[in-house]
Amino acid sequence: MENINYINVFLISLLYFWGSNTALSFGIGYYTLYRPIISGMITGLILGDFKLGIMAGAVVNIIYIDFVSTGGSLKGDQCLTAIIAAVCAILFRLSPIQSAAFSYAFGYIGILIWKYRLNINSIFVRKYDEKYKEGKNPNITIYNGVLPQILLYFMSSLVMLISLFLIFLFKDIVKFHIIQNILFLFGIYLISLSVINVLLKVKNKKGNFIFLISLFLATIFNFSYVFIILLLMILFLIISYKDFYIEKNSYLKNKENRLLNKWDLIYSWFIWMNFSHACYNFERLQGMAFAQSIKNIINKLYKDKINASEIIYRHTEFFNTEPNIGTSIHGYIISLEEEIILGKESVDISYIKKGMMGFAAGMGDSFTQVVLTPFYVSSALLLCLDNSYHLSLLAVISLGINILYISYTGFMQGYYLGRDSLIKRLNIIKNSVIKKYFPLVFDGILGACVGKLILLNKLYQEVNLIYFIFALILSVIYIWIAKNKGKILRRS
Amino acid sequence: MKNIVLTRIDDRLLHGQVVVSWIPSLKINEVLIVDDEYAKDDFMSSLIKESSPNNITVNVMSVENSAEYLNLDDNKNNLLILSRNVENIYKLIELNVKVSTVNVGGLGYSEGRKKIINSIHMSDSELEIFRKIELKGISVEIQMLPSDKVQKI
Q: What is the pTM of this model?
């Protein structure tokens, strides 16, 4: 296949919109659709070559495995890179490593959208503000949920069209043997950069040892890791189930006379999960989303519409937290809003919200982004490289389930058990066994992935070993320079 | 005098960027949160302590106690000072705490604040305090992450 039709283009743009969006996907799109291995796989399905799609995605994923997003910071757009890589692999018959290298630059086009989006979304905030101040009672759902999404859809479709146009411009050039070799070496360079970065970050002698052992087992004996990975996944799920389990007895104990029922909470949680980053902007980050998620609660508590819209408006203030660990804040704030109506409390809600959000974000990111996500995603990669494509899907789905579970229990704990539940949660994360041993596991999985990748490449092409080593050395030099630049900065 | 490696103004205090990026990159092992309100608030103080990584000492102190503490002998720790607002840092400087640079890493929007650059919003009075700090020969740097470029106000 050398061509792509309109329906393909439409579906691919839709995939990119949905994947890069982090909204409208039950809060787990960022952990599933956005991940290169999944977006590459779906692109493969659209273009009729599932296997090549998932492989190209997997290589892009390894290039991005060293990256951690905190507070909205990003290295490059992995989702766009993976989609383009899958398209290149399938249409131009490039190997997964070559197509990942070829599409690497597109990550930087994608990142522009993200930055621009955080700016442009402020327009919706201002419009909402204006309408409120004119006394027009604006609907937060429209300004947070609907309008920014429509804009994003057009923006991401445009970027996708431009990207596809660009790769077709280069279509004939990538057929040259020398270009293919350069791409391959650039790919090796990128992979080695990412892997060395992880090893340096973990910086653990045992970890390095495990890395080498699993690399050795994978390359020399083509050892199958499927069983080990499945075992680890089950272990992870059991431990986090136990950790975040809600004590059912403490439910409802101190809560009689309530105005809200469980469905109100579930609905509010549902809205938060789908729209937490729908109108993400530099001015208030998730503020608009918080307001939208609490809308049904406030409307139920306040019969007077004018009062309700004032409270919702107040909730649009600056807010940002880790969206899954931090849900205890939502639950707790909802319980406070209810107490106020019941006349039991008078509290400064804004002070409490702002006080709790940053800490939940710090601890939360260090768990969901630094431990859970890389574990499941790298497991998925290894399973994929081990030829168990369907199981690799299972790994990503497990990540989604884990995230949903953590987020749901947090929301309910916050409401039923109060603010101490957040402290308890953070304490669990701090002393988590998973967190403690994860770096070693990660090194091991990564070593196995690299080993499998080396084996896999033998299938695709023969490459001059000297060039190969040259690419590796280049990546080491790059990292050395980057590290020492940091030292010079620190000195000044 | 304690070894202050970074003095940061960030309204989310110990959040993701700080825990995941700044602390490892500057090898910080002690954090001091300067805040009168939180120092009095038991819940916030314990939340702050619980939410910090195990290998790091975290203290929450009022401005006055902080100044006293910082001027004690060096305990060989790499110390990070965090504050929600510029006022507290200015008070510290007034109380003779030697700060070489003030890092600004996040001031969200609120009524009366204007956007300076992305993620940094200041009111006129806050801007004035920053100017006063600069007049004392202390440089004020806007920088979200260690890998970001430094910007001036």
A: 0.90
